[in-house]
Amino acid sequence: MISVQNLVKHYGEVKAVDGVSFTIRKGEITGLLGPNGAGKTTTLRILTGYLQPTSGMVSVDEFLVNENPIEIKKRIGYLPESAPLYPDMMVYDFMQFMAYIRHIYDKEKVKDVAIQCGITEVMHKNINELSKGYKQRVGLAQAILHDPDILILDEPTNGLDPNQIVEIRDLIKELGKEKTVILSTHILQEVEATCNRVIIIDKGTIVADDSTSELKSAKGKDVRINCVIGGTTFELIQNALKNISGVKSVQHVRDEGQLCHITVLTGADVDLRPAVFNCIKDNGWTLYEMNREYRSLEHVFRELTVGI
Questions:
Q1: How does DSSP classify residue 135?
Q2: Residue 141 confidence (pLDDT)
Q3: What is the pLDDT of residues 50-91, one digit of tens each?
Q4: 2-215 and 223-299: same fold?
Q5: pLDDT attached to residue 220
Q6: How many Å apart are CA 25 and CA 36, to the nearest integer?
Q7: Neighbour count for residue 164 (Cβ, 10 Å)
Q8: What residue segments make up the domains of the chain, in order of their start?
Q9: pLDDT digits (tens, 9 = 90+) for 273-296
Q10: Separation of alpha carbons 38 and 201, rounded Å
């Protein structure tokens, strides 16, 4: 549905996007992540035809952005970081205006979109009277008014409170059941909760492109198994567990009374929790807690962008 090949964008001497390539299939909800200045917004603006690339090719349904901008705009609903609203207009008038410029003459369409985006109760308020959350909802409503196949959302929850974030997130997930969605955000929990694919951009290039589960699976990385064990000492625990195949090290965290807190470092290829459990049981010790640490998307993001 969307194909980006060797995309490059210069702003004077600054190369904002440097050889970016990816393909997004129909029905995917893709999170576009990256630090400030990484090239996310520039990439989205090129996808929507707002900016022209310095070089490279972008196509939507096989239409090239630089050759068929109107056809592509028909297929895309775009919500920029700052929602394109007219603050002195009533919501109803604004939505009617957006319908008019998109040649939508079905009066029921505005009503249906208002219900879908949850803005019916504010349709007769001025936009400048709305909360940030409702303004974002109105911005989403104008983006889907023409029933596009693709939604491109740049920081859709920026500046919202936690309740508003959940509301917009749920709305995006609902829209994602019928549309292809590209979502740019700094809120990593939002990506984990909403997206089934993540593209991470750093310094204008793609450093990761995979499903959220695969990015967090720690392929090739060490895994930590944390245990709380009673009835023994760290030295005895260490001597017993280090003989398990796949255990790289056993680290002493702390003692709390009669309980010993440890961390077992293992490879990611095999889950050693059953082996660790059986070793503790066979030695007659008491296992109070065991958990396997999974890398968060934040961990992966920092690993790829700042090397931490």
A1: H
A2: 93
A3: 899 999 999 988 888 888 888 888 899 999 988 889 999 999
A4: no
A5: 52
A6: 26
A7: 17
A8: 2-215, 223-299
A9: 999 999 999 999 999 999 987 767
A10: 6
Both tokens of residue 286?
């008491």
Phi, psi of 258 (to 5 degrees): -90, 5
Q: What pLDDT, on the 0 to 100 scale, is given for residue 158?
A: 76
Under 8 Å between Cβ of 215 and 31: no
Other C-beta atoms lying within 10 Å of the C-beta of residue 269: 11
pLDDT of residue 22: 94
Structure confidence at residue 298 (pLDDT): 78
State how far the Cα of 103 lies from the Cα of 101, in Å rounded to an integer.
5
Q: Look up residue 30 and give its two tokens.
A: 């893709």
Q: Which tokens go with 103?
A: 């040649």
Stretches where the chain sits below pLDDT 50 are none
| Contact between 144 and 117 (Cβ < 8 Å) | yes
The CATH superfamily holding the domain 2-215 is P-loop containing nucleotide triphosphate hydrolases (3.40.50.300)
Structure tokens at 63: 């239409």
Query: How many Å separate Cα 213 from the centre of its chain?
Result: 12
Helices 132-144 and 107-117, axial angle in degrees (round to 10): 140
Q: Which amino acid is at 121?
A: E
The torsion angles phi and psi of 221, rounded to 5 degrees, stand at -110, 160
What does DSSP assign to residue 308?
-
Which is it for the CA torsion 162, 163, 168, 174, positive or negative? Answer: positive
Supply the pTM of this predicted model. Answer: 0.77
Architecture of domain 223-299: 2-Layer Sandwich (3.30)
Length of the chain: 308
In this predicted structure, what is the pLDDT of residue 110? Answer: 94
Q: How many degrees, rounded to 5, is the angle at CA 20 between CA 3 and CA 185?
A: 90
